[in-house]
């Protein structure tokens, strides 16, 4: 992750669950079994150069495993 999440993630939405996730075999191999979900939300992030921006984030999440592989999809400001 080349950014730091500042504060809470808001407007959280699940948009894929289980077999609808293309990366499911890789996630299970790396992090273990679980009810995997692909989620998105909005948060303030600090980029590597120190800039703070609002961004839409995507990540994978499973109960007992936690949130994994955050990525910035787009900037909102």
Describe the protein.
- The protein has 77 residues and is mainly β.
- It has one domain.
- 10% of the residues lie in helices and 61% in strands.
- It is built from one helix and four strands; from the N terminus they run βαβββ.
- It has a four-stranded antiparallel beta sheet with strand order 1-2-3-4, with no helix packed on it.
- The longest helix has 8 residues.
- It is elongated, with a radius of gyration of 13 Å.
- The chain starts with a strand and ends with a strand.
- The model has no long low-confidence stretch (mean pLDDT 96).
Layout of strands and helices, then pairs:
Blueprint: E1 3-17, H1 24-31, E2 37-47, E3 52-62, E4 66-75
Antiparallel strand pairs: 1-2, 2-3, 3-4
β-strand number: 4
Strand content: over 45%
Unreliable residue runs: none
| Order of neighbouring strands in the sheet with most strands | 1-2-3-4
- Class inferred from helices and paired strands: mainly beta
End-to-end Cα distance: 20 Å
Along the chain, the helix and strand elements come as EHEEE
Radius of gyration: 13 Å
Overall mean pLDDT stands at 96
- Helix percentage range: 10-25%
Q: What count of domains describes the coordinates?
A: 1
How does the overall form come out from the CA principal axes? elongated
> What can be said about the biggest beta sheet?
4 strands, antiparallel
Q: Report the total helices.
A: 1
